[in-house]
């Protein structure tokens, strides 16, 4: 280990693997290490035997649930916005060639005790049972405004400065009621709580436009896509990308200890008596526990079922958002479901997740509103994990620590964390308009 690396990445979670790939593409010398013997870290995918071992000890799964190899159960289940940041990163890096995707059937919202399809355009708003006739017209006008809004074209702004106007002030100009605001803010703009109402409206309008663009991209019933065989392929796809650009990988490296010089700056990583020198370290919170703080806990129920979720038009893959106000909570609850149609379960089987930021000490009771939507389940597991975020100043110690995964069932906040870390590490932003795979192909032709 006499080589000095620009960056050592610790942990093969999705965030760390994306960064490893992006930094390798930048021609930085990257060493990627993990104490585990598998890719994915906390965001790994498990087969049925691994799932049983993790949650039930050494028990063998019941035969009627199907073959273990048919299952790929994500421990951090998230869909991708079809026009969102992660898809743009995948296209930018060419990692799409390692994966196959399929559209997600449905996007729903829980309102007044019932599940409703989320309207994303003025036409869908007019058909939605979520609203009465007059409210539909008002909502349709608001969706039309958002649809036509172009940040660089003041003629589309209707005199509103969305960098100064709060979301609440903008919505009040259209006279929308609380229920409509609820599903727009949480199920279309994908805010996690109501704090967005007092923030500049530009962010909500951009989020709504992303939702509508994502729905339009595949002309499906939702704005989401999801890889065949689950998310476990994603970290490996970025690991391959890193390797193509010269990155080095070492799995099963126990007790990776980050070393610091007299000034408190990182200078290397020691494992099994050998030290690899480096200028910077990127890692998940578990590798530098004294430089992070606990910021909460996530509760998650994992269900194996023999049917789609009731009242979702027989959807084989679906997201349902339960806005905080509908449940008397401080943050939203999420239901994620996929099935054998995405090759993550045996034929005829469905996997559902109910996730929430913990607000009590009782996961079963807290997750009940989401679990009740699932109908009969064959098996149910309860999972909890702590969330951490960094407390260090990376400009002083050169340690770049990712934030733990949140309870949401979409990737937008995950990728924002990755792109923010990339900018801190390199001092520049990723130009997602460039297709690196095309660039590298033309280099090969020269």
Automatic annotation (TrEMBL):
Organism name: Urochloa decumbens
Matching InterPro entries: FAD/NAD-bd_sf (IPR036188), GDP_dissociation_inhibitor (IPR018203), RabGDI (IPR000806)
The protein's name in its UniProt record: Guanosine nucleotide diphosphate dissociation inhibitor
Domain of life: Eukaryota
Pfam families (UniProt xref): GDI
Family indicated by similarity: Belongs to the Rab GDI family.
